[in-house]
Amino acid sequence: MKNLIFTTLIALLTLLSRSAHAQTPQPISDRLDAIVAYPLVISLRVPDENALRRGVTTRIDDGRTFTSTPYWVGRIPYLSLPSWITSYGQWEAMPYEQARRTPPEQRPSGSWFIVVPLPIDAVGQGLWFDQTRYELNWLPDPERSLLEADTVEHTRDFASFWSMHLDEQTRDDPSVTNAIAQLRRDPFQHWRARLLTDGLDPDRTRARETLANTPDALRSIELELSTQSPGIDLLNAIARQQEARWQIILGRIWLIDPETAERLKQTLMRTVRFNDSTLPLWSDNQSDLAQLSHDLLSPFVNDDTRVLRAKAWLETQPRSIAWVIDDQGSIEANTERLLPTLGVISMPSEPGSSLLRVEVGLRSPQLETVPPNTQHEVSVPIEQQPITTASPQLSTQRIHLRMGHWSQAMDVLASPVPARPPFVRIGPLLADWTMNALISNRPLEASALSPDRTCLGMLWRAAPPDRDSPNTGWRLYLECAATDPTAPGDALTVWVGPRTFPTAAWRITPDALVETVAGTAYGIVPQPSVETRILSDRWVAQIDLPAAVFDESGQLMLGIERTDADGVHSAWPRRMIPGQSDPARLIVTPDHFDDLKRGSP
Known about the structure:
The protein is α+β, with helices and mostly antiparallel strands.
């Protein structure tokens, strides 16, 4: 009986011990990367938040213990406007007591973090959470790689590598400036802001940390947080740790293979010239970058394998991207073939132009050279495919692009759109391209605007044609949703005629003001008659088009764009690159509208 009681007690104590251990906070990652002379920031898995009330106690192998205050670190997404780069939001770090008083559903999305102030003489030791030991992957101070550049010439080349960053003119472009400002507010991506502005130079990091009165030149690389909460030091520690990880990665790779290190750095801070503006064009996949840094800092790979992993990642990055700028805004003289325009950007692994091969059907390929990191436009002739009784559907034409090992196929609209009763549908207008959508070749990603910003309409014949001018009587009706339709700055721009040489373009505001903003026929094409109405949640424009908008073939080339009161831009029939001069065009053929309206075949 005594043995049974003793056995039961042992089993109960074991169960209680296991239960208590199961409730102990543990690191989310099985591998902890500790950087010499840097505090260790750890994200935690916390089964029971009550276990955090006295802080989190850890110890190293020699018995020294550390009690860390747990912080809930999360991101509050901004209610941001559509833009080239997605807004990262605002990061907050709430200490345990504050987080405990905040219901989980009201906290920003995130997890628990602690900072362990590992002493410099702890190198080589492991870290204990309760009864579980974690082997620390000790990484050298980022400045260590500077010391390993063993000759004066090598050191000079290494310093030149760290000085690689965006030039002042590129940084001053509004899109790049905006991207840097967002990155500076994100502790997990602040390292890239520094990469763009100062090359992530370890010397500047050390100068910033050792100078008592940080000068303005160094203060500019500080993490910019909009919070003054008690967790600001933890957020700064996260930013320092992420910076140090990438400094170690880039320094190690350069010491092994300088060419690969330079390619890696250039890819991480790539910008591309689009017409008259410069836009960032880098991989924004955070999980992919986290996995890359995890692999490159692994203690189980040698130098050769480390470089091979970096090269493998570089090979997965797009070497080229392409998109449709315009389907029907240009027609080849004499042949009446459509000349759709494609945008192509070459991002080669080596400097120099690339050879582009364009193929349509069984025709001989079209060859062009494409300069690196610059938008290049390609026009490809295709046959028009009119809508007929035998072929009542809109037709597309597939265009194949090839550049080295890269290839992409795109469909362009080959059929003019016949105007049929009761109307031709217009829209909805599409938001501008985003960086992620373009680089990942997802044309519809983030293209739809929210219901309070959408714009759509129709084109129809509102009056019978005049005997002397059969193209009169066409009306364009557009509805533009808005939270405040009376706010200044909202405007539509209606483009008619070829994309490169528009017949006319009119800017129309909610108060029915019409302004001619472009056109090769000033004084020839009269402004349209416009009526507008302002409602509670939208404004409406009714635009009576002059007969002169139709070309000599009786066709209407139409494109529409809108910039709302908040500066959000959208267009139809194709989405646009930020800064693009004018939208794509769609050809509307109205010649059978009246026959169809009377029921003729």
